Amino acid sequence: MKSIQPRSSPPKHVALLWRHPLPSPRLHSIRFLFSLPFSPSLSYKTRAPLLLIPCSEVQTRAELPCFLTNSFFFSSSASSSAAMSEVAPVVDAEYMAEIERARRDLRALIASKNCAPIMLRLAWHDAGTYDAKTKTGGPNGSIRFPQEYSHGANAGIKIAIDLLEPIKQKHPKITYADLYQLAGVVAVEVTGGPTIDFVAGRKDSSVCPEEGRLPDAKQGASHLRDVFYRMGLSDKDIVSLSGGHTLGRARPERSGFDGAWTKDPLKFDNSYFVELLKGETEGLLKLSTDKALVEDPEFRRYVEIYAKDEEAFFRDYAESHKKLSELGFKPPRSAFSCRSGNKQKSLLVQAAAGVAVAAAVVAWTYICEANKKIG
Q1: What whole-number distance in Å separates Cα of residue 42 and Cα of residue 137?
Q2: Where does 93-191 sit in CATH, by number?
Q3: Do β-strands 259-260 and 28-37 pair in parallel, antiparallel, or remain unpaired?
Q4: With respect to CATH, is domain 221-326 assigned 1.10.730.10?
Q5: InterPro entries attached here (predicted)?
């Protein structure tokens, strides 16, 4: 698509824009709302953060987004591709439609490859590096870089990254951060687990955290608390999220351990907790971090609840998984939720807001024209 450069000829359209500051004081993102035919009889005025830009060379409204992208996206010409990649995506109806298409592709991928466990592991390991004090790490897609996926705790995670790359290329609008967390949500749902609320809008980061932030399976209760409290999570979150070990198995080439935690490692249910309370079971894996859940009194009370009540486990797991997937992430006000009820409501709110803005501009134009004629 060719770049359209502004000239001094009379503008054919004016574009209504939303100017939003980025973390760097020299950068601003510009969101195109819609355009209006230019009328020389009108005085066009707006208040920040709205902008009206005269567009001389734009012949049609279809050309406006291209014109704006090439001419006004950054207030400084010293922008870099790295800075652009770390800008949060615009979560609008088009972005959410892409999310839903990616969700369908993820379901097909997981069904064909039986890769739900490693997709869930990828989502956890990308998010589980978060540090609430320093506001670093978390679900930002940085695990796709060798500096991070080569960490000892991430052995084998490159398999999931490579499996997801074709889906990312097919849906380039979606950030890696959103895609990896969506993959974890879908992995739980398609294996019989709870529906997890997914809010899009995570921005990608190229900054990888230092090694050592993920749980060490050889440690006990105090270590688990150190890791999860650092993220801002609770004892209940520790136990409910540990229930995700109902999926998958440990492999010696990755962790040094071998075996599955449950008898059906491709089914998401509460059997992890049932097996924990049975003690040592031949053929099933119990790591030090697993045993800590029954040895520590505060942890054990949740284990007992979840072993008896799968519905309670599903409810708490969905809540804890959502918290984990949103660590350090502040959903934009316009973010769409992917739960069916919330999604429909959000779509209606977005549509209503768009209609209201359009109506206001039309009314404003009409009043200006009327005042001109009266004057």
Answers
A1: 50
A2: 1.10.520.10
A3: unpaired
A4: no
A5: Ccp1-like, Haem_peroxidase, Haem_peroxidase_sf, Peroxidase_I, Peroxidases_AS, Peroxidases_heam-ligand_BS
pTM of the full structure: 0.69
- Site of tokens 């450069």: 5
CA distance 179 to 202: 9
Q: Tokens representing 17?
A: 């824009």
**Weakest-pLDDT range from 72-86, 193-207, 282-296, 303-317:** 72-86
User: Where are the chain's structural domains?
Assistant: 93-191, 221-326
Q: How many CA atoms lie within 13 A of 194 on its CB side?
A: 21
Place of tokens 């739980």: 188
For the chain, the average pLDDT equals: 78
What radius of gyration, in Å, describes the C-alpha atoms of the chain?
25
Helices within 15-92 (DSSP H only): 64-72, 81-85
Q: What gap in Å lies between CA 292 and CA 303, rounded to an integer? A: 11
Examine the residue annotation and report whether 245 is marked as an active-site residue of this protein.
Answer: no
* Residue appearing with tokens 């995570």: 202
Strand runs (DSSP E) across the chain, as ranges? 13-21, 28-37, 50-55, 249-250, 259-260
The closest alpha carbon to 202, from 185, 177, 183, belongs to 177
Out of 13, 125, 151, 245, the active site residue is 125
